[in-house]
Design goal:
This protein has two helices and three strands; from the N terminus they run H-H-E-E-E. The protein is of the alpha+beta class. It has a single domain, classed as Pantoate--beta-alanine Ligase, Chain: A,domain 2, CATH 3.30.1300.
Amino acid sequence: MSCAFAHFNWKQALRSERGALFLETVVALVLLGIIGVAFLGALATSSTSRVTADEHASGRILAESQMEDIKKQSYLLSYDPVPIPADYPGYFAVIDTDNLRNGQIQKITVTIRHHNKNVTQLESYKVNR
């Protein structure tokens, strides 16, 4: 029984595809590079999103803390921010008050800033009783 591969000239076939292996390697490396760049871009976006989410969560905690302190105080024309804990470097609070209804109601706005960028803003009202 004769095999079809017995008469196949392997040396001639390898010579005719001499540059094909190099070309396949280059194409594979280019594809690997494209996939790697896409992966690194996704990783950078994920990292940036995590930092932004942490910044907003910290700002929300600080704003709620400031507002709770204001609500405990008696009715004043303006309020000073409570010192920010050392666990939150670069954060600071700005408190604005708008008097409404002849000074009987105040709209209080607490803005938390981190590195001079607004992170969170919390508004509430206080009644003069």
